[in-house]
Amino acid sequence: MNPYIVGLVVPLLFSYVLRRKGEKKRGLPADVGGEPGYVLRNYRFTTPVESHWEGITTLAELFEQSCKHFSDNRLLGTRKLIASEMEQSPDGRSFEKLHLGDYEWLSYAETYAAVCSFASGLVQIGHGKDERVAIFADTRAEWQIALQGCFRQNVTVVTIYSSLGEEALCHSLNETEVSTVICGHKELKKLIDISGQLDTVKRVIYMNDEGISKEISLAEKSTQWTISSFTDVEKVGQENPVTANMPLPADVAVIMYTSGSTGLPKGVMMTHGNILSTCSAVMTIVPALGSKDVYLAYLPLAHVLELAAETVMAAAGCAVGYGSPLTLTDTSNKIKKGTKGDATVLGPTLMTAVPAILDRVRDGVRKKVDTKGGLSKKLFDMAYNRRMNAINGSWFGAWGLERILWDILVFKKVRAVLGGRVRFLLSGGAPLSGDTQRFINICLGAPIGQGYGLTETCAGGTFSEYDDTSVGRVGAPLPCSYIKLIDWSEGGYLVTDSPMPRGEIVIGGPNVTPGYFKNEDKTNEVYKVDERGMRWFYTGDIGRVHSDGCLEIIDRKKDIVKLQHGEYVSLGKVEAALSVSPYVDNIMLHADPFHSYCVTLVVPARQALENWASKQGISFSDFADLCQKQEVVKEVQGSLVKAAKQARLEKFEIPSKIKLMPEAWTPESGLVTAALKLKREVIRKTFAEDLSNLYA
């Protein structure tokens, strides 16, 4: 049967059956070892899945099998660059605009040949058996070829975000003693700038970008590195093939470094078996996944979400077309006006998306609808409301002739934003708001599977299935994982809570990684092995389990918050930096996972602020009046920005908006402890309206 028909009919049948029979149990209680708690497993599997493919135990074996089975199919697609030019905005700033052409493809067989050649070339240019390779580049076809080439020689790959700062970059490369770095144009420039601080790098392989010759020449003059092009490494490997040195399941495939926004990044060691188990679980989740599907790849491959997603796509015989967040749609920042974005040209059927991207799509559609106004807006609002009511109501309203009518009249244009063919979306990396989830689901007519996992669990944890129409939850346990809630008495979360068990989320299963590279203390702190040999990771996140066995994230033990774009903000660290401002008596930073920026409540140092106001000739009736004045707020915020820059905080850590609080926070008021530590939750509840206004 046609997979597209299956992808449409199966969810409809499930939805109908659910409406007739009541709630479906998606997560079931499980009896496992380890610390006592409330444990769930996936409803379809009694024990965690390790491999979906018979006889396949490593990523290298999986890739080879796919390339042979789907040899003539398209695998890796890259858009041709037609032209690049600089445009000036009204404020004088210059922006690069790209005119990109059609996708040019490598088949599975061609990709496999390139992988084998690169693997051999890596050995031929002198990379040793026990040395590590770092891939430091944006997501692109060469990234995947290099990764698979390293796997064929059992070389551990260190993945590094292309946006990582100098200190974190040095730390990552030096800690793992990387000898070969594979990089793009802008990354080569970064490497040259810190070359004197890199202890073990011997070789650099650069991807063939336009305009890179200047950096190559500089690197050859200023460093002792051997500089090779990606193409040359493939060529020497093709001419001098080397026998593959295939890995074992327990061998470390990847050391994946975090973004480093809460201090120096930690390297998570992932074995071939770890990643394979997550990919095996996802294969059972996406309906009718197969060779007719096209996947748009644009998220960082240095993030486990994208790495796992592309592994699954290749395993299923899908085509993977590469793009970027800045060229994704026809209106993206880097797309030249009048030319097409990646989604329009590729026409993907599957996408992985972070909430920020989906929020942009939602906001763009709403803005366009509001701008048109009139009959167009009334028609859109009517269609949206009817579809919303249908999801919660009648079968025919949700899936019958009315749906087809609204799709033709209204939603077809919305779907065109992402190419018009998307049938399934996976959202991860940060919480997705219920409003955005429902909006995208209605307008695109495609299920959104929201997942929960961590680098330490190879992205495996939970996943919302295609027939789950709820919002705000992250689904039931993936088939590779157990989900356990344990009591966190200090925070008031207990597994005996009613109506839902609550507690810290602990994940167990074959996808749980060995730990952090060269960081045994931190590994022992958050990883535990039970009496049955099952490995568990203590996430620090707080969740509750719904009656159908689905998980909802409700809190976090530590004062670390992940913003909408996936960046982590350490509230205490930022507050300590901002407190240096002479205008600060007390301060509480607030970060909301559904927004991309922070806000803060500031209790001003009264004397310092009043002295400044007097010098400026600002009159005020009392201190509360002074704190309301815009010029005063601007002065304090400027001081905070200065303190933040002195502390070298990241842009997303600097509060975008502030509110001055004239009343001091004292133990008597209940806002701070006797030791004057913030009672963060009490302050948040007390000033909930002020915080809400800052996000308005």
TrEMBL record:
<keyword id="KW-0436">Ligase</keyword>
<feature type="domain" description="AMP-dependent synthetase/ligase">
    <location>
        <begin position="89"/>
        <end position="517"/>
    </location>
</feature>
<comment type="similarity">
    <text>Belongs to the ATP-dependent AMP-binding enzyme family.</text>
</comment>
<dbReference type="GO" id="GO:0016207">
    <property type="term" value="F:4-coumarate-CoA ligase activity"/>
</dbReference>
<keyword id="KW-0547">Nucleotide-binding</keyword>
<dbReference type="InterPro" id="IPR020845">
    <property type="entry name" value="AMP-binding_CS"/>
</dbReference>
<dbReference type="GO" id="GO:0005783">
    <property type="term" value="C:endoplasmic reticulum"/>
</dbReference>
<keyword id="KW-0067">ATP-binding</keyword>
<dbReference type="GO" id="GO:0004467">
    <property type="term" value="F:long-chain fatty acid-CoA ligase activity"/>
</dbReference>
<dbReference type="Pfam" id="PF00501">
    <property type="entry name" value="AMP-binding"/>
</dbReference>
<dbReference type="GO" id="GO:0106290">
    <property type="term" value="F:trans-cinnamate-CoA ligase activity"/>
</dbReference>
<dbReference type="GO" id="GO:0009698">
    <property type="term" value="P:phenylpropanoid metabolic process"/>
</dbReference>
<dbReference type="GO" id="GO:0005524">
    <property type="term" value="F:ATP binding"/>
</dbReference>
<dbReference type="InterPro" id="IPR000873">
    <property type="entry name" value="AMP-dep_synth/lig_dom"/>
</dbReference>
<dbReference type="InterPro" id="IPR042099">
    <property type="entry name" value="ANL_N_sf"/>
</dbReference>
<protein>
    <recommendedName>
        <fullName>4-coumarate--CoA ligase</fullName>
        <ecNumber>6.2.1.12</ecNumber>
    </recommendedName>
</protein>
<dbReference type="GO" id="GO:0016020">
    <property type="term" value="C:membrane"/>
</dbReference>
